[in-house]
Amino acid sequence: MTNTVPSNADAHPAPGAGDFAARASAVAKVYGRGDAQVVALDGVTVGIPRGRFTAIMGPSGSGKSTLMHCMAGLDSVDSGQVFIGDTELTRLKDKQLTRLRRDKIGFVFQAFNLVPTLTALENITLPMDIAGRKHDKEWLDTVVDTVGLRSRLKHRPTELSGGQQQRVACARALASRPEIIFADEPTGNLDSRSGAEVLGFLRDSVRGMGQTIVMVTHDPSAAAYADQVLFLTDGQIVDTMQGPTAERVLERMKGFDRPAADTARTAAGGGSTSGAAAR
Ligand SMILES: Nc1ncnc2c1ncn2[C@@H]1O[C@H](COP(=O)(O)OP(=O)(O)OP(=O)(O)O)[C@@H](O)[C@H]1O
Ligand SMILES: [Mg+2]
C-alpha cells in the first residue's frame, strides 16, 4: 500500500552496545583452501538488539547459517570478534565456550533434534538437567502454555506432529531463559499452519517475555513476523529493514541475484503481475 520504501541501508540499529544481546565485529570466515576456498563471511559487523525478533534473509549460500553458527559459538571465526552480551565469545577457551553456550544461548534447528526416548517434558528440561540446574516451575509453566503443549507433555517425539515437535524444541530453548535464541529455518520442515503457530509464539515470547530471537528464513511471510530483517549477500550484510511486511521483503529480495529472486518467487507462491515496479 505504501509505495515509499524507506531507505534503511544505513539504518543499523542505533542503540548503545549494552542494548545488543549479541554483536559481530568484522567477522570473516573462510572454508577450504586454494581452489576450493569459499569466503562464507566477508567482514560482517552487526548488532542483534536485545528483546527484539530479528530475521536473517539472503540467497542460498550467502552465509546465513555460518553467521548464526559463528555468533552462537558453534563454529570458529577466522578473524573479527563475536560478543554475547558483554562477553567476547571469540576469546573463550573451549570449556568456557561450552558453559556460555549452555547458560546463555538457546538453539532451534530445522531438524527438531529431540531425544526419541524422552517425553516432551523431559526433552524440554534436558539442558537444565544436564547442567544440574533447578527448574523454575513457574517459568516452565509459562513456556509450556505459550507453546500450547500442556496436554502433550507425556508424549514421546514419535507421538507428536512435526509442528508439536518443533514447539517442544522451542520450549526447550526458551526454558532456560537464554540471553539469545538462534533459530535456523525453524519452520523449514513444517506445513504453513504449523509454521505460523511456531512463528506466532516465537514473536509472542519476544513481545511478552522480552526474549531475544534471531531467525534465519527463506520465507518472506515468516520474516514478516520479525521486528527487523537483515539481508545477507555473498557473506556481507547489504541491507536492513525495520517493521517488515511480506510484500516489502519480497520486493527487496527481487533486488538480489537470481537464486534470491527464485527463492522469493517460490516462497510467495503466486506471481505478482501488477505493482511490481515500485521504484
Ligand atoms: N563446512 C563447510 N565446508 C566448506 N564450505 C562450507 C561449509 N559450510 C558452509 N560452506 C560454504 O559457505 C557458504 C555459506 O554457507 P551457509 O551454509 O552459511 O549458507 P546459507 O546462507 O545458510 O545457505 P542456505 O540458505 O542454503 O542454508 C556456502 O558457499 C557453503 O557452500
Ligand atoms: Mg543455511
Tell me what the structure shows:
By secondary structure, this protein is of the alpha/beta class. The chain has one domain: P-loop containing nucleotide triphosphate hydrolases (Rossmann fold, 3-Layer(aba) Sandwich). It has 9 helices and 10 strands. It has a 6-stranded mixed beta sheet with strand order 6-7-8-3-9-10, sandwiched between helices. It has a 4-stranded antiparallel beta sheet with strand order 2-1-4-5, covered by helices on one side. Strand 7, helix 6 and strand 8 form a beta-alpha-beta unit. Helix 3 packs parallel to helix 5 and helix 5 packs parallel to helix 6. Magnesium ion binds next to helix 1.
